[in-house]
Design brief:
The complex is a heterodimer of chains A (249) and B (352). Chain A is built from ten helices and ten strands. Chain A is of the alpha/beta class and 249 residues long. In chain A, the strands form two sheets. A six-stranded mixed beta sheet of chain A has the order 6-7-8-3-9-10, with helices on both faces. A four-stranded antiparallel beta sheet of chain A has the order 2-1-4-5. In chain A, strand 7, helix 7 and strand 8 form a beta-alpha-beta unit. The longest helix of chain A has 15 residues. Chain B has five helices and 19 strands. Classes of the chains: A alpha/beta (249), B alpha/beta (352). Chains A and B meet through helix 2 and helix 3 of A and helix 3 and helix 4 of B.
C-alpha cells in the first residue's frame, strides 16, 4: 500500500531522513521505534506534506500514486491520515464543524456527494458514544481546553469518520493515562481491516501492548537500521537502542 | 466631565481634523475630504442586513436624525424593547452628498433596549452622525452596529454614553471599512457599579480604512469595562484601534480590561493600535493586551492534513478568528443575524 524508497529529507537545511526505505502492505500494522531525534516525526510530517520538509531524494508510492506530487489535502482525500502527537487547538471552530468541513472537502475531491447534516450527526453520535465522547464536547471549539486524553479520543473519532486507508499514529500514547490509552487503542484496533494499513510511531513498548504490530522497524539517524517481528519491542525494552546506535554511523 | 469630541462640521472645511491633531493622527479626514460635500438630507435605502424582530425605524431628516425617543418608546411597547434603527444612506453618483445629523436616546430607570444600528449605504457620500445615549439607574442598552458602507464613502460615526448606578451598556461594532470610516464612542462611567462592554470586529480588504476609537472615563467606584476587538486586514487596507481608559482619582474598585487582536494577511496591510491606560485611583484592576500576527501556519497545515483545500482552511480559520466577538451577543436572533453577516462578508475575502 505504502512504499518508501531512499527517502532523504531536510528541514531548515538540516538533513533528518537519510535514505529511508520502508514497505507497508495493506492489512498490516507496522511500528517505527527509535530514540529521540532519529527522524520519527519527520517521517510522519513528510508523508503528510508539511511545508518546509524538503524532499531531496527518493520516492513514495501510495496505492500506485506518487504521494510526493500531491497537495496536502489531496493526500488526505486519497486516504492518508496523520494523527498528530499534539493535536492543534482551533479556537472558534466547533469540533463538529471542523470534522464535517474536512469530510465533505474530501468527498468533493473524490467526486462523491456531500454527507447531509442529519446523516453526519447520526453517524457521529454513534461513534462518539463508543469513544465515550460527550456530544456537548463536539459543539465546543476543536481541542480548545481539552485534556490530553480528550484530544486523542477526538483524533480517533476523526479517523473513524474520515475512514482513511493509511493511518500514521505519531506518539499517540503521549499524554495518556492507562484508562485513556485503553479507550484510544480500542478505537484504533476497531479500525484494523484487510484494506487498511497503519504506521505506529512510538518511543515505548507500552503502546504496542495495546496495538499489536505485525512488524517493527528501528529508526536511527534517519535510516531504518533493523526490522523484525513483534518480539523486537520486548528486546528493545530490555536492552535499549544502544546496540543499534553504532550501526547507523 | 464633559465629553471631549473634536468639533466637526462637514460643511466647514476649516473644522476638518488633520493628522497634526493627536486624536486623528492615523485617520486624516482633511486628506480624504478634499471637496466640501453638498448639503443633502438622508436618502433612504432599505437596509439589507436582515430582520431580528425589532421595531423598525428609519432615520430621516437633515440636522436631526428624527424623533429617536419616540422610536424607543414604541419599541418598548410593541417589540419587547428591540429596535432596528436604519441609518442607511444613498449618495449621488459623481458628486459627494453630505449628510450630517445628531440624535438622542434616553433610557429611564430599569428600562431595557436592544438596538441594531444599520449603516448600509450606496454610492458616494460623506456622513457625520452623532448619537447620545443617557442611561438612568438600572437601565440596560445593548447596541449592535453594522458598518457596511460602500468603499467610496467617508463616514464619521460618533456617540456618547452616560451611565448611572447599576446600568449596563454593551456595544458590538462590525465593520468592513470604507474610503474613510471612523467609529468613536465616548463613555462617561458615572454610575456606581455600572458595567460597560465595547467590543468589535473588522474585516478589511482592498484600500479600506476603519478606525475604532473608544474613550472611557471611570468617574465612580466599582465600575467595570470589558473590551475585545478582533480584526482581519488584507491587501492595502488599514485598521486603527485607539482605546483609552482613564480612571479618575477616587474611582476605586474599577475593573477595566481591553484586548485588541489583529491578523495581517499580507505585506502591505496596516494595523495601528494605540491602547492607553491612565490611572489616578489606588485600588483598581486594569489590563490591556494587544497582539498583531499572521494566520497560524501550523493550524493551517492541521486543517489541510484533514482534507481541506488551502482556501477552505484559510476561510475557516479567518472566520473563526472574528466569530468570538459575535458569539458574545446574548440575544439569539441578533447573534445569528450577525454570524450570517460575517459569513457573507467573509466569503470572497479569503482568496489571496
Amino acid at each position: 500500500m505504502l512504499s518508501i524508497e531512499n527517502l532523504t529529507v531536510s528541514v531548515d537545511t538540516k538533513t533528518i531522513l537519510k535514505g529511508l526505505n520502508l514497505n507497508v502492505p495493506a492489512g498490516e500494522v507496522h511500528a517505527i521505534m527509535g530514540p529521540n531525534g532519529a527522524g520519527k516525526s519527520t517521517l510522519g510530517y513528510t508523508l503528510a506534506g508539511r511545508p518546509n520538509y524538503e524532499v531531496a531524494q527518493g520516492a513514495v508510492d501510495f496505492n500506485g500514486e506518487d504521494l510526493l506530487e500531491m497537495e496536502v489535502h489531496e493526500r488526505a482525500a486519497a486516504g492518508l491520515y496523520l494523527s498528530f502527537q499534539y493535536p492543534l487547538e482551533i479556537p472558534g471552530v466547533p469540533a463538529l464543524t471542523f470534522i464535517r468541513t474536512a469530510l465533505n472537502a474530501q468527498r468533493k475531491l473524490r467526486g462523491e456527494d456531500e454527507m447531509s447534516a442529519p446523516e453526519f450527526l447520526k453517524t457521529t453520535r454513534e461513534l462518539a458514544k463508543t469513544l465515550k465522547i460527550d456530544m456537548d464536547m463536539l459543539k465546543r471549539p476543536l481541542n480548545v481546553g481539552f485534556s490530553g486524553g480528550e484530544k486523542k479520543r477526538m483524533e480517533v473519532l476523526q479517523m473513524a469518520l474520515l475512514k482513511p486507508k493509511f493511518l500514521i499514529l505519531d506518539e499517540t500514547d503521549s499524554g495518556l493515562d492507562i484508562d485513556a490509552l485503553k479507550v484510544v487503542s480500542d478505537g484504533v484496533n476497531a479500525l484494523r481491516a484487510p484494506d487498511r494499513a497503519m504506521l505506529v510511531i512510538t518511543h515505548y513498548q507500552r503502546l504496542l501492548d495495546h496495538i499489536k504490530p505485525d512488524r517493527i522497524h528501528i529508526l536511527v539517524d534517519g535510516k531504518i537500521v533493523h526490522s523484525g517481528g513483534p518480539e523486537l519491542a520486548l528486546e528493545l525494552e530490555a536492552h535499549g537502542y544502544d546496540r543499534y546506535l553504532g550501526e547507523a554511523a | 466631565m464633559a465629553f471631549d469630541l473634536t468639533p466637526l462640521d462637514l460643511f466647514d472645511p476649516s473644522s476638518y481634523p488633520t493628522r497634526r491633531n493627536e486624536e486623528w493622527k492615523y485617520s486624516d479626514l482633511a486628506r480624504v475630504l478634499r471637496d466640501v460635500p453638498s448639503r443633502t438630507a438622508l436618502t433612504h435605502l432599505q437596509a439589507a442586513t436582515g430582520d431580528f424582530g425589532g421595531f423598525y425605524w428609519h432615520c430621516a431628516g437633515d440636522g436631526q436624525l428624527g424623533d429617536l425617543q419616540a422610536a424607543v418608546t414604541k419599541a418598548i411597547q410593541v417589540s419587547g424593547g428591540r429596535l432596528y434603527l436604519d441609518l442607511s444612506d444613498v449618495g449621488e453618483e459623481g458628486a459627494v452628498a453630505g449628510y450630517q445629523g445628531e440624535g438622542r436616546i434616553a433610557l429611564g430607570a430599569d428600562e431595557h433596549l436592544i438596538l441594531l444600528e444599520d449603516y448600509s449605504g450606496a454610492l458616494d457620500y460623506a456622513a457625520n452622525t452623532t448619537l447620545h445615549f443617557d442611561l438612568a439607574e438600572g437601565a440596560s442598552l445593548t447596541r449592535v452596529v453594522i458598518l457596511d458602507e460602500p468603499e467610496t464613502a467617508v463616514s464619521v460615526r460618533r456617540s456618547t454614553v452616560k451611565t448611572a448606578p447599576g446600568s449596563v451598556f454593551k456595544q458590538y461594532v462590525f465593520a468592513t471599512g470604507a474610503k474613510f470610516q471612523r467609529f468613536e464612542t465616548h463613555v462617561e462611567h458615572a454610575g456606581h457599579g455600572a458595567h460597560v462592554e465595547m467590543h468589535g470586529a473588522y474585516l478589511l480588504k482592498d484600500t479600506a480604512h476603519f478606525d475604532y476609537t473608544t474613550r472611557v472615563n471611570h468617574a465612580e467606584i466599582d465600575g467595570t469595562t470589558e473590551q475585545l476587538i478582533k480584526g482581519l486586514v488584507k491587501d492595502r487596507a488599514t485598521a486603527v484601534f485607539q482605546g483609552r481608559i482613564y480612571v479618575e482619582k477616587g474611582a476605586d474598585g474599577t475593573d477595566a480590561r481591553m484586548r485588541h487582536q489583529a491578523l495581517m494577511l499580507n505585506d502591505g496591510a496596516h494595523v495601528r493600535a494605540k491602547p492607553e491606560l491612565e490611572i489616578y485611583a489606588d485600588d483598581v484592576q486594569c489590563a490591556h493586551g494587544n497582539t498583531i500576527g499572521a494566520l497560524d501556519e501550523a493550524a493551517l497545515f492541521f486543517c489541510q492534513s484533514r482534507g481541506m483545500p488551502e482556501d477552505t482552511a484559510r476561510a475557516l480559520l479567518m472566520q473563526a478568528f472574528v466569530v468570538p466577538v459575535a458569539e458574545q451577543i446574548e440575544d439569539e436572533a441578533l447573534r445569528e443575524m450577525v454570524l450570517n453577516w460575517i459569513e457573507d462578508k467573509a466569503g470572497g475575502f479569503y482568496a489571496l
